[in-house]
């Protein structure tokens, strides 16, 4: 169990010990916080028929052995049939028949749906019927990075387990145990890109993200100097996750503001950077609130907006 998820884990264990488990959990939060692992731990605890004194699975009972082998008859995981595709109604409908069956080995049946926001409208409606008529000793676990994309009718019928990014020092302390050789300054920067999610940092390091973001920093300087081509730049950024780029740019502009304040310069550049910061945050909100947004056009609009802010600032200075 990751250290930043201990409070949520203690909450679950307390509910389990008091026999107050809900019929559905909604694990939500940004990618890279360990929601999948948490769900698997919940399943292991619920299906174990001989929990240890510390409320951990025994690992020895028939139920634990079946789960470890990946063929437990009382556990189902629903996910898209292909990466990036939707979860279909037939996948959810099949759950109804299985829910009505009695347990085979354990005392509970468990179901993981991940990512829950991948369900199409028909699948969501079918799941809602199951949530409205929950079966005894059946635990549904929905996992999502984007809870706002789930219908409110589904969210309201699940007990929420919101996952939050840990404090920076806790994240850095954990990363220091992961056999990586980056400096603290590098890790802090990448942690900002990952919105504070430590596991995401490891993924980014595996993909040599540092080199890629050095290029983005150079691109940002070109935007601020008015030398960028918005269409060409938006095209070169298309393989990046736009929200990650924006968080990184916000990190850069925030650091530049801090440097100005530390030097105690009463510069009009402060107002310039603050306006750019606002522009970045407004675009971040758009990326999370709009469905099927054209990211290339949004990126172009963002670049043009920053260049216009810079142009107006420079004209005022003159």
Keywords:
318 residues, alpha/beta, Rossmann fold, single chain, 5-stranded parallel sheet, Zinc Finger, Delta Prime, domain 3
Describe the structure.
- The chain has about 325 residues and is of the alpha/beta class.
- It has two domains: about 5-160, Rossmann fold (3-Layer(aba) Sandwich), CATH 3.40.50.300; about 210-315, Zinc Finger, Delta Prime, domain 3.
- The chain has helices at about 5-15, 35-45, 60-70, 90-100, 120-130, 150-155, 170-175, 185-195, 200-205, 210-225, 230-235, 240-260, 270-290, 295-315, and strands at about 25-30, 75-80, 110-115, 140-145, 160.
- The N and C termini lie far apart (about 55 Å).
- The model has no long low-confidence stretch (mean pLDDT about 90).
Question: Which helices and strands, and how do they pair?
Answer:
Blueprint: H1 6-17, E1 24-28, H2 35-47, H3 62-69, E2 75-78, H4 89-99, E3 109-113, H5 121-132, E4 138-144, H6 152-155, E5 159-162, H7 168-175, H8 184-193, H9 198-206, H10 209-224, H11 230-236, H12 242-262, H13 269-289, H14 295-317
Parallel strand pairs: 1-4, 1-5, 2-3, 3-4
Strand content: 5-15%
Class of secondary structure makeup: alpha/beta
Q: List the domain count as a whole number.
A: 2
User: How widely separated are the two ends?
Assistant: 57 Å
User: Could you name the CATH class of the largest domain?
Assistant: Alpha Beta
Superfamily at the CATH H level of the largest domain?
P-loop containing nucleotide triphosphate hydrolases
* Total E-strand runs: 5
Q: Which parts are unreliable, with pLDDT below 50 for 5 consecutive residues or more?
A: none
Largest sheet geometry: 5 strands, parallel
Number of helices: 14
The residue-averaged pLDDT reads 89
Radius of gyration: 24 Å
Strand order of the largest sheet: 2-3-4-1-5
Helix content: 55-70%
């Amino acid at each position: 169990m990751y250290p930043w998820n201990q409070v949520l884990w203690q909450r679950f264990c307390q509910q389990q010990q008091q026999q107050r488990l809900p019929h559905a959990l909604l694990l939500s939060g940004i990618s890279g916080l360990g929601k999948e692992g948490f769900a698997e731990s919940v399943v292991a605890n619920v299906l174990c028929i001989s929990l240890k004194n510390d409320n951990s699975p025994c690992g020895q009972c028939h139920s634990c052995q079946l789960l470890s082998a990946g063929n437990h008859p009382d556990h189902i995981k629903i996910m898209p049939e292909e990466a990036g595709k939707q979860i279909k109604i037939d996948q959810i409908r099949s759950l109804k028949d299985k829910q009505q069956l009695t347990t085979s080995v354990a005392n509970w049946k468990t179901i993981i749906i991940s990512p829950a926001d991948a369900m199409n409208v028909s699948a969501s409606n079918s799941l809602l019927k199951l949530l409205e008529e929950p079966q005894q000793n059946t635990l549904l676990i929905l996992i999502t990075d984007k809870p706002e994309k789930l219908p409110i009718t589904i969210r309201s019928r699940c007990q929420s387990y919101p996952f939050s990014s840990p404090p920076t020092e806790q994240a850095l302390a954990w990363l220091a145990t992961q056999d990586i050789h980056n400096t603290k300054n590098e890790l802090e920067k990448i942690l900002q890109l990952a919105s504070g999610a430590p596991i995401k940092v490891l993924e980014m390091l595996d993909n040599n993200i540092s080199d890629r973001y050095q290029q983005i920093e150079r691109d940002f300087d070109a935007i601020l100097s008015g030398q960028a081509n918005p269409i060409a730049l938006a095209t070169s950024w298309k393989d990046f996750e736009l929200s990650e780029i924006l968080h990184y740019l916000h990190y850069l502009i925030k650091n530049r503001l801090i440097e100005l304040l530390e030097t105690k310069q009463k510069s009009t550049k402060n107002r310039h950077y603050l306006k750019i910061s606002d522009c970045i945050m407004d675009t971040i909100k758009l990326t999370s609130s709009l469905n099927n947004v054209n990211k290339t056009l949004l990126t172009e609009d963002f670049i043009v907006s920053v260049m216009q802010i810079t142009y107006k600032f420079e004209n005022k200075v003159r």
